């Protein structure tokens, strides 16, 4: 079945919260449109209240008292089943992601596949809660450390990866014996509704996962403030993450924050300019540039700038913009018209500061594109390191070219922003590569490829890009568990 036929048969439902293992009726619901067809309503989704959050957190707290006692391998087995179900329902989930978020189908399928990989890794973590046995200072004694789940996790996710990011939070929470109340973005709630169906089918006990839909102000704030929430895992803007961290700190509640980025691709040398342009273009325009790890600025030696800019312009010109259901589409719409307007305002500000558009930048409104939030992929050159486009996270299909004199200036410019999430370097000199790995002020560094991460590696940033334990990987243990020391005497 193709995407449009599937949507015709499945849109239009009314969806409430998932609390204590059951779907809850809600009095107020909000329509969510198709990002590529604003005239198509995908469904009506709950607008929750503080009372809904109270019920969800109370359910999660009750469930935690028994879930934490379930042996790790049994918790892992449930998560492995959930991964199998996601894999079986992958096409359906990809249709939902593309409809509400807008990304093309090949990207949605990739997102669902990545979620399966990460969930399987998290399932294995349930058997890897580590402790250590230490020698005692006393005769006939020994000392040991072990890990315990911290309790109820408030999980708050953005709209750009509506299947992957929830799995990235729910999977490790359950693996380590925590329970969770999950709040997705109000722009992409349908994917989360589908995920609740998956976890229920997999056998997750009632109350272990709870879903509350709604806005950050109406739902997210109540979740962050709730006294029974002992950890907050948040992915979103640096501004909102800073506010959440301030509230959590007043209660001495742990946070795991994945925030914004302004990721550089530093280009110092190459054998094949077309290959470099292809890698940078993919890193910049996948998900229509709406991802925290997108490359948004190219820092290139002046001697290479013209050649690389021409190669990038040619690569970007081949990107066909269109809806997900068109197999020839290479880039989808922005998530909302309001977000598209924000991207255009940032571009205009950058042009006012001396930058110039080398390719793209037009709103696309021909034919069926008029019903969606489409924008050409945009390449901008003559960008100074002080330009807004070199400093501010635009979060859209906009790539800025910054020419520098030498390696030292390239590294200085790369580190000159408030963010520190991901960075790439392209070079044929191993010493330059190793120096950049050491000196880059970022949480993740990539040498001679784009900013794609892997499903078993810690994911996170420094500076304004994150705080707390990195997600994915074994580093999650530092957030979802407490360390306890025990002493024994014979």
Description:
This protein is α/β, with parallel strands linked by helices. The chain folds into two domains: 3-259 and 465-489, Aldehyde Dehydrogenase, Chain A, domain 1 (3-Layer(aba) Sandwich), CATH 3.40.605; 263-455, Aldehyde Dehydrogenase, Chain A, domain 2, CATH 3.40.309.10. It is 40% helix and 23% strand. It is built from 16 helices and 23 strands. The strands form six sheets. Strands 15-16-17-14-13-19-20 form a seven-stranded mixed β-sheet, with helices on both faces. Strands 10-9-8-11-12-22 form a six-stranded mixed β-sheet, sandwiched between helices. A three-stranded mixed β-sheet has the order 1-5-4, with helices on one face. Helix 13 links the parallel strand 16 and strand 17 (398-404). Helix 2 packs across helix 8 (216-225). The longest helix is centred in the N-terminal third of the chain and has 21 residues, at 105-125. The termini are far apart.
């Amino acid at each position: 079945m193709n995407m449009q036929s599937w949507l015709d048969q499945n849109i239009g439902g009314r969806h409430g919260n998932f609390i204590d293992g059951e779907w809850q009726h809600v009095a107020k619901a909000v329509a969510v449109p198709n990002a590529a067809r604003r005239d198509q309503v995908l469904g009506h989704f709950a607008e929750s209240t503080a009372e809904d959050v109270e019920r969800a957190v109370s359910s999660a707290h009750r469930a935690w008292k028994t879930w934490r006692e379930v042996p790790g391998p049994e918790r892992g087995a449930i998560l492995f089943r959930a991964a199998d179900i996601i894999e079986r329902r992958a096409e359906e989930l990809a249709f939902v992601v593309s409809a509400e978020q807008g990304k093309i189908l090949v990207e949605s399928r990739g997102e669902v596949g990545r979620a399966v990989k990460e969930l399987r890794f998290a399932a294995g973590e349930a058997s890897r809660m580590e402790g250590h046995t230490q020698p005692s200072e006393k005769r006939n004694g020994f000392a040991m450390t072990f890990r315990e789940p911290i309790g109820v996790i408030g999980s708050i996710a953005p709209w750009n990866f509506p299947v992957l990011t929830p799995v990235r939070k729910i999977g490790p929470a359950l693996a380590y014996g925590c329970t969770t109340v999950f709040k997705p973005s109000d722009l992409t709630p349908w994917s989360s509704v589908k995920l609740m169906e998956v976890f229920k089918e997999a056998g997750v006990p009632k109350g272990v996962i709870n879903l509350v839909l709604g806005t950050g102000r109406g739902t997210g704030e109540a979740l962050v403030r709730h006294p029974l929430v002992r950890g907050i895992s948040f992915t979103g803007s640096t501004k909102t993450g800073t506010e959440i961290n301030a509230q959590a700190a007043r209660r001495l509640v742990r946070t795991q924050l994945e925030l914004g980025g302004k990721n550089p691709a530093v280009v110092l040398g190459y054998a094949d300019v077309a290959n470099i342009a292809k890698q940078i273009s993919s890193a910049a325009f996948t998900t229509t540039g709406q991802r925290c790890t997108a490359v948004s600025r190219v820092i290139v030696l002046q001697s290479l700038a013209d050649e690389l800019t021409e190669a990038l312009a040619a690569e970007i010109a081949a990107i066909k913009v269109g809806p997900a259901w068109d197999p020839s589409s290479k880039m989808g719409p922005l998530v909302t018209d309001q977000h598209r307007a924000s991207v255009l305002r940032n571009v205009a500000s950058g042009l006012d500061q001396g930058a110039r558009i080398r390719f793209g930048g037009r709103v696309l409104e021909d034919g069926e594109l008029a019903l969606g939030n489409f924008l050409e992929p945009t390449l901008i050159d003559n960008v100074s390191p002080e330009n807004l486009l070199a400093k501010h996270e635009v979060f859209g299909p906009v790539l800025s070219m910054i020419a520098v004199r030498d390696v030292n200036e390239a590294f200085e410019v790369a580190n000159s922003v408030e963010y520190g999430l991901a960075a790439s370097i392209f070079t044929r000199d191993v010493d330059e590569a190793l120096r950049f790995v050491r000196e880059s002020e970022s949480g993740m560094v990539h040498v001679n490829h784009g900013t794609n991460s892997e499903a078993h590696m810690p994911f996170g940033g420094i500076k304004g890009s994150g705080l707390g334990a990195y997600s994915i990987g074994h580093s999650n243990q530092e957030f979802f568990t407490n360390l306890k020391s025990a002493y024994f005497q014979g």
